[in-house]
Amino acid sequence: MYTKKTTSGYSPALDVIPFLSLAAGLALITIAASFSTTAMLAVTVAIVFFSLIAQLIHRMAGHNAEISFFLIIPTIMSATQNVYLTTVADTLDNSRLHFAIILNFIFSLALYVVLVARRKPTSEPALRKLISSVTAALVFLALYGAATVVLFQPDLTAAIASSRNIVAPFLFLLIGLHASTWANGVVYLRYLVMLGFAAIIFGFIEANIPHFWDSLNLRGLWEKKGISVQADSGLPKNFFASEQLVPGEFLRRMAGPFADPVNFGTFLFAVFMAAWYLKGLLAKILTVAAIVLAVSKGALLGLFVFFAVWTRYFASRISHVTALLVLGAGAFSFYAFTLTSSTGSTTAHIDGFTAAFVEFPRHPLGRGLGSSGVLAGLFSEGSESTSAVTESGLGMVIGQLGIVGLVIYVVFFVLLSQYVLRIREVRDRTLAAGLLGGFMLNAAFNEVALSPNSAAPYFIILGLVIGADLQGRRNREMNRVLQGSSSPS
């Protein structure tokens, strides 16, 4: 379906100026973060973002506007922020650091506002209905989250940090849905694969050059964030696999420009799905190799889901059932392996998810935003000591927002699944189902999956695919009506 959508008048050269503006803007922001006050940093960010948003608005005013590059900007910022911030880590205070690490989310909010303000009035009614439903869920979730802050009075900084993760899937899906009338999904997927290729090359470099992160002062940045690093390596604990392939030795994981193997692995699965859709063999091979080197369990779960979905639509029923059995056996064998060779990471992810349901009867309304989970623990000392809910994204939602958060998320994913399974084009449906299934499974056992750093490409693609399908369905219905009216009586 995407390949049939016109891109006449569009050339990648049109995005050179926005790209250079982004690169120069990030350099300027880095300098401002190092040498200015928080207020001056905010002014610098406002100028940079205004420049980008002005170019977006100008692009949308043109004929057959194509805005995919602007949709990939939050992911570019997520992928690179830990690299450019390491260069100024020693000069950053807490306020400037915390402001700098949420710039991708701030830009996403600005992008959403522009898309809503410039929405085409001729959008397909079914698309408007879905947008209204997701918007209502987002508003209700935000209002209840704010209410829990008043009711349970958790740490305010932790609450704000957690709120970004909790609303991220809704926000980025809305961005994709609104942008589906302006953006060509194939162009977005190409940009994602290009970014993935650059990230993988960077990953091979950082994983094979001794003291690479020491030279960039990653230790200083992580300590400013409140994340402990190992004394001998100067790297966070998650830079090393919890499983011991050789007794006493832990494999160094590829971290990429994210400087975080978990975020990097989640990103890589989205890149793999984009490469599969675009039929890029080399990109698929490189991405799978990077997933293995990152030792990303979340990405591996995603590959399992994709294989199950692919055999459902592109193979026989017997092959599909066989694939499910093989995947089930493989998953069980891997879990058994982790029990004997791991330091407990896999068990912690599973226990973090189940703990949410164990604690649920005692806290049916939740504990409040910022009250449980790994991220909350970074901002609110002691939050994890009163709750066993850690590592799990969906568990964190239940632990913080209780029955309200659970219901909204379940309804959201059920509604999204219904739209995905009704996508007409099989390849589009496989792309969307693989991304959605992989994300849900990852989010159940991984809190990082809900972060804007991880969720953005998943839900923007879902929004673009579903939006394009709904508009294409409307066009097909109109064509049938026109053909019927023009046939001889």
Quick synopsis:
The protein is mostly helical and 489 residues long.
Folded structure, characterized:
The structure is a single chain. By secondary structure, the protein is an all-alpha fold. The protein has one domain. Helices cover 72% and strands 0% of the residues. The chain has helices spanning 16-35, 38-60, 68-86, 94-100, 103-117, 125-152, 156-179, 185-208, 212-215, 218-225, 261-277, 281-294, 297-314, 317-341, 345-359, 374-379, 393-421, 426-445, 452-486. Helix 6 (125-152) packs antiparallel against helix 17 (393-421).
Quaternary status: single chain
User: How much β-strand is present in the residues?
Assistant: under 5%
Globular, elongated, flat, extended or rod-shaped: what is the shape? globular
How would you state the average pLDDT, rounded? Answer: 86
The low-confidence parts are 2-6, 485-489
User: What structural category characterises the helix and strand content?
Assistant: mainly alpha
How many helices? The count is 19
Helix content: over 70%
Number of domains: 1
Cα gyration radius (Å): 22 Å
Major sheet attributes: none
Q: How many strands?
A: 0
First-to-last CA distance: 33 Å
Encode the helix/strand succession as letters: HHHHHHHHHHHHHHHHHHH
